[in-house]
TrEMBL record:
Keywords: Membrane, Transmembrane, Transmembrane helix. It comes from Oceanobacillus halophilus. The keyword Transmembrane helix applies. The chain crosses the membrane at residues 20-37, 49-69, 81-102, 108-131. This is Branched-chain amino acid ABC transporter substrate-binding protein.
Length: 143
């Protein structure tokens, strides 16, 4: 097989892949929805399609971040954006940790654990976006 070099054909191929991805995602959501109705929330999460769905959503989000960074203007300082994002992630994590520890049936340890998990889960995309912005600045120093 030869590699396709015609941009029109590449675009058509990408549109076909996007359409197949949409159909696949709708099928997974349909199956998970059926499991939710018949087996409840725990039964739905026991289905292996739940893991496939979560992984595909995370991968799609990270690929979208790359496109977003390439699309945005280069006027922003990447360190300023990193600082603002870290402050926001920290505040959200602390607030949810405090609210969790104040909730009935939860202890301070539960609040710290949940706040810490949210902080780490928010930190990963923030650092990834910072990495993409820095890489873009290094690749295009004149912009």
């Amino acid at each position: 097989m030869k590699k396709i070099k015609d941009e029109r054909l590449i675009l058509i191929n990408l549109k076909n892949i996007r359409f197949a991805y949409i159909i696949q995602t709708l099928g997974i959501i349909g199956i998970l929805g059926y499991d939710l109705v018949t087996k409840g929330l725990n039964g739905m999460r026991e289905n292996p399609l739940w893991i496939v769905f979560m992984v595909s959503i995370v991968v799609s989000a990270y690929l979208s971040m790359n496109v977003s960074v390439d699309h945005e203007n280069n006027e922003k300082s990447s360190k300023k954006g990193l600082f603002i994002s870290l402050v926001i992630v920290s505040l959200i994590s602390v607030m949810i940790g405090i609210l969790t520890s104040l909730s009935e049936g939860f202890t301070i340890i539960n609040g710290i654990i949940i706040g810490g998990i949210l902080f780490v889960c928010g930190l990963v995309p923030v650092l990834y976006i910072y990495y993409l912005r820095k890489k873009r600045q290094e690749d295009n120093p004149d912009e």
